Amino acid sequence: MQFVSDPAVAVKIAKMKERVCWQHPYLQARRIDQTRLVLDDDQPDSPNFSFLVIGDSGTGQYRGNNPQRRVMEQLLAHGDGSSFVLHTGDVVYLVGSKEQYFDNFIYPYREWLINGDRPDQIAYDQMVFKLPLFLVPGNHDYYDLPWCLGLLAQATLPLRNLFQRQLDLDVGWHGSNKGDAYAKAFLDYLHRFTAAELQQHVGAHYTAQFNTQRCLRYQPGVFTRLPNRYYQFRKGGIDFFALDSNTLNTPLPIPKNKAGKLRRRQLKADRQALLNNKNQALEAAMRQHESRSEQDDDATSDTYAKVEQLDEQILDIDKQLADSSDLSLDIEQLVWLKQRLVESWSTPEVRGRILFFHHPPYVTEASKWYQGQTLAIRRHLRQVLDQVQSAVADKAAGRPLVDLIINGHAHCLEYLHVGNTGHADSHINCLVCGGSGFSLRRQRPEGPDIWETLDGGAERCVARSQLFIGRYGQGAQKHRPYSCLRIDVHAGTPPKFILRPMIADRFQRQWHHYQLAPIALSHPAN
User: Counting beta carbons within 10 angstroms of the beta carbon of residue 175, is it exposed (0 to 12), middle (13 to 18) or buried (19 or more)?
Assistant: First the structure.
């Protein structure tokens, strides 16, 4: 049995549009841009500022050893003076159910919330942040329960006990309802309003002016909703573009030629091997369940991690094998990104650009680097950037079109240089920050270099990992270094970025907190 189901791309798009009343006549008449916000934090817009990054944080029970709470302690200790937090997605595991928000989000991050000293009184759909929190949805924020598992989970308490205490699989009770829980928690859910309430709400919160349009005013401590699942904001001369990669990650269908048949056969064999491994992991969990010692807690967490990882790999193969792949794709979002990047390059006061979204285009974490979804994201990003390059080549003057790409999804902290790819994504710095609470993964045994086969058969190294922090060691020597980032942005064009990785390492049933030496980013071409 699979523990999750993933809605179709077209369903995700339609549901999210409905929730934010996308292009409602009242909003159109007032020229409101529903993909932009202005940060109104009463702070000077200095070119020198800092921000924090977390991702894949919404961890399970861990019997008191909650990793995301340990990461939060690092953030509280070293995050003074930060302007905001970026979250790279997967806010709540395993399926983004609304009843899991208290344990997996509200309580761990209570210091960032209004009334955080009384977290049990905060409803998941009424959160207001003291420190701005800019999120993008992850795949788990869209996941639902298969109907049979949802029925059993709600009807059978012993099964709930099995999943949540013996195996610690936080499947929840409801699932995300196609991303509805995420939308109610973080987006400006306009669909809940009557016509009169909508007018009043828009008049109160869409008061910012950007160019010739009005947009949402984000006010820490007052109103901290996001206008959409993808959006843009500006800070210190840097344009930030938040994307929803869950509607851009469908693998291309397998061709129906001889090579395609061989590929399909291999994928089916891989899928069966993954299923066998998953069944073995579940059997091991059943053998462990009588023990309640702290010594076995990490082993239980490892089993939890393995089952979730195998399930996700199976889901990726299912997407590749689907005969009726959902190729509708989120063209609207891709066109939006292209237009906004061109506009950004045509704006003299903008000195840099950062993209952040869930699925990484480049990564060396063992379970993600080769997935069909990873390659799909890379392909679509290249297509957009190639189009932008054609439009702004004279303005870019050899600079990378984007200064920094920040992702999650891979459960690690990684810093990569993209090399010469033959496309406009060349020479971009990429960060993966997906190790902030959920199960950690190892780096692939193939090493730090990512290669591609060109059309003529030759191979090219397209990216190289400079830093990888994930699970390592074996047995009693196993380390689980959970991570987060502080990024310092300095004045100048192009801007200068300093990474300050923070680590909460669980080793031999003890926690060890430390901060790595700062890392200055530079364009690989320089």
Answer: buried
Tell me whether the omega of the peptide bond preceding residue 94 falls within 30 degrees of 0, making it cis. yes
Cα–Cα distance, 330 to 375 (Å, whole number): 16
Cβ-based neighbours of 11, under 8 Å, separated by 6 or more: 178
Nearest by Cα to 3 from 204, 202, 139: 139
Token pair of 112, please? 């960032």
For the domain made up of 9-36+49-252+323-521, give the CATH fold: Purple Acid Phosphatase; chain A, domain 2 (3.60.21)
Neighbours of 21 (CB within 10 A): 19
d(CA 495, CA 49): 11
Structure tokens at 399: 């600079």
**Contact (CB, 8 A) for 444 and 364:** yes
Residue 183 identity (one-letter amino acid):
A
Do 482 and 506 contact (CB within 8 A), yes or no?
yes
Q: Which residues pair with 239 in a beta bridge?
A: 234, 353
By C-alpha distance, which of 247, 244, 245 is closest to 330? 247
Task: Give, for 66, the enclosing helix (H) or strand (E).
Answer: none
Tokens of 366: 């063992």
Sign of CA pseudo-dihedral 37, 176, 442, 453: negative
CA distance 412 to 443: 8
The torsion angles phi and psi of 482, rounded to 5 degrees, stand at -75, 150
Are 36 and 233 in contact by the 8 Å Cβ rule? The answer is yes
Report helix, strand or coil for 333: helix
Tell me, yes or no, if the pTM score tops 0.85.
yes
For 260-382, list the strands marked E by DSSP: 352-356
pLDDT along the chain (526 residues), means of 10: 79 97 97 98 94 90 77 90 97 89 94 97 97 97 71 43 43 80 98 97 97 96 98 98 95 79 82 82 65 56 72 79 67 97 97 98 94 93 97 94 98 97 96 94 95 86 97 93 97 96 94 96 64
E strands, 62-218, are: 85-87, 133-135, 208-210, 213-218
The pLDDT of residue 175: 85
Bridge partners of residue 417, in order along the sequence: 429, 464
Phi, psi for 46 (deg, rounded to 5):
-80, 150
- Write down the domain spans for the chain: 9-36+49-252+323-521
Nearest alpha carbon to residue 109 among 144, 140, 79, 147 = 79
β-strands 479-490, 459-469: how paired? unpaired
Q: How many angstroms separate the CA atoms of 63 and 61, rounded? A: 5
